[in-house]
Amino acid sequence: MSTQPTTDRPTGPARTATVLADGRELVYYDDVLGDSGYVHTTHDPRPLPDRFGPDGYAAGPRMRRDPLTGEWVPMATHRMNRTFLPPASACPLCPADPDAEYADGEIPDTAYDVAVFENRFPSLLAVPGEDESVQDDTVVGEGLWLDAPAAGRCEVICFSSDHDTSFAQLDTRRVRTIVDAWADRTEALAALETTQEVFAFENRGREIGVTLPHPHGQIYAYPYVTPRTEQLLTQATAYHRRTGRSLLRDVLDGELAHGRRVVLTSEHWVAYVPFAARWPVEVHLAPRRDVLDLPSLTDAERDDLARTYLRLLRGLDRFFVDPESDEPIPLPYIAGWSQAPAHDPRREHARLHLKLFSVLRAPGKLKYLAGSESGAGAWVSDTTPETVATRLQELLA
């Protein structure tokens, strides 16, 4: 990969967009700023058929609405054949290696900083020309069984070309590039006609169910408002009608005033263990300023986020210690950005925040969602938020 001036944006990370062999979009984001960037390899030599051509998708994935909860459930049967825990020499997220036998990598260049591309095995996909209307398959009653195309979009974001690193091991310059990529993709995906909500997230660790160990996350553009966001908006809207105030604003101010569960503060960000945390380890990270989504963050807030988030992750990676080796246990976690939905009229009651949680409740012990949580949706915590906060406060002091 050579360094020459090439970029299509005057500020922020250098950005290079291309199309993979089957028609999926790929975008490189480079750490360098301004008018100097990398010349990337953009040609994908793989003999992949056009995904929307005769040998591609005959139809996109479908989704069905659960009449008992009102929730949409995509049926993405083609994902059963996706890549599962390949060795580093066969990882599709690693940069291209001309000397390797494996030639089915998703990124055609031999090096990159951050790369975002459409998932080859998407849970959500808008197929051109497909009827996107909701179908009613009800045989008794009215509107009981509703079916529709799962016409969204799923993207993969690779945080580094280094297969053996992790998000917490990145430097602040790289994390700043990732923040810009999150914001850029949120803006682009929210502009799609089918998008109702954009969710950027990372799954880390085998305990979480990660199938590709390369450091990466995902960005989903949902054609519906997700259940958790729907619940949040319902609560926030009712709270505003009752008090005239912002629920999420008051939650943040309340945590700051109380102080007991606050684990990390900076000029622009606050991290705290929520009052009713469900998971063994759970932390929320929120901006001090009222912000609806990632694209709305200022440069100063993005700079501060890169530093603060890294500090938080590095502390979390020391939360548990192996009793035999006395070495820290890298925390398996899910981290996802809650943003205002793209078009919902209640979006003004949303507020940007990150929710990070882990299924690890002790070294070698996982929290399994058994009868109470899975069967009834009735959570029972194995600890208290104050206990978790105390441990993090010690680590982050």
From TrEMBL:
Q: What molecular functions are annotated in GO for this chain?
A: UDP-glucose:hexose-1-phosphate uridylyltransferase activity; zinc ion binding
User: Listed GO cellular component terms?
Assistant: cytoplasm
Q: What class of enzyme is it?
A: transferase
Keyword tags: Carbohydrate metabolism, Galactose metabolism, Metal-binding, Nucleotidyltransferase, Transferase, Zinc
- List residues of the Galactose-1-phosphate uridyl transferase C-terminal domain: 235-394
Q: Give start and end of each Galactose-1-phosphate uridyl transferase N-terminal domain.
A: 62-225
UniProt cross-references to NCBIfam families, sorted A to Z: galT_1 (TIGR00209)
What protein name is recorded for this chain? Answer: Galactose-1-phosphate uridylyltransferase
Source organism of this protein record: Luteimicrobium subarcticum
